[in-house]
Amino acid sequence: MSRRRRRRLVLGGQYGAFVVVVAVLAALADWPQLQDNFANYGKAKGLFPEILTVGLRNTVVLTALGFAIGLVLGLVLALMRLSSAAPYRWTATAYIEVFRGLPLLLIFVFVGFGVPLAFPGRTVPGGTTGAGALALGLVAAAYMAETIRAGIEAVPKGQMEAARSLGMPYGRAMASIVIPQAFRIVIPPMTNQLVLLCKDSSLIMFLGISLGGRDLTKFGRDLAGQLGNTTPIVVAGVCYLIITIPLSQLARWLEARQRRGER
């Protein structure tokens, strides 16, 4: 028997075993019970339109604010990491290592409860939403900084040398020539970071948000507790997919377009 034929037989056996396992699990599952607890149409229908106008809207706003904060701060940290001044490099490196190493929940707790304790009488602008966006942005900046730094380093050094030879100041050359090219390189991974932020925004529920400020996870959890049914959580998960799947597809499309442009 040839190697190719053996490989086909092995693959066929694996596919067959997979189909058998799925069929057995499907036969043993209690589908009416699963439908009643996870896909109850009557309870799901009662969630609309509030789950979209409140939960989905707040999740999108929180994600967008966190991404904007992370992008601006990440760019500053990336430039500090590339600076010739050692204190800038040390500060940026310390920030990146600390915020990439700490759990995101800890950052939420620190921003939501630590800041008011450290600065009595002062709160983060925007209330709970502002605190959640700041926590997301602080952590996202640590990851974005490394992504942006890699993008800047990927720009050919001849671009900067040519600009400097024409008498252009370093800052202007970086802002008008290098950074725009770097951002074209890092757009795909930045899109993936946006997807991660969208999912991480669910941690805002630990800050004690109001009814009008509930994100998708908090909205689904509250309704699940009131109804004694997990369908609201499933519907909230579907709403997350409405956001994340198009963003993931966009990231893959941008990566494919970038690869085609490099050929």
UniProtKB/TrEMBL annotation:
Major subcellular site: membrane
Keyword Cell wall biogenesis/degradation attached: no
Record membrane topology: Multi-pass membrane protein
Domain of life (superkingdom): Bacteria
SUPFAM superfamilies noted in UniProt: MetI-like (SSF161098)
Signal peptide: none
PROSITE patterns: ABC_TM1
UniProt record similarity statement: Belongs to the binding-protein-dependent transport system permease family. HisMQ subfamily.
Protein name, entry field: Amino acid ABC transporter permease
Protein's organism: Actinomadura yumaensis
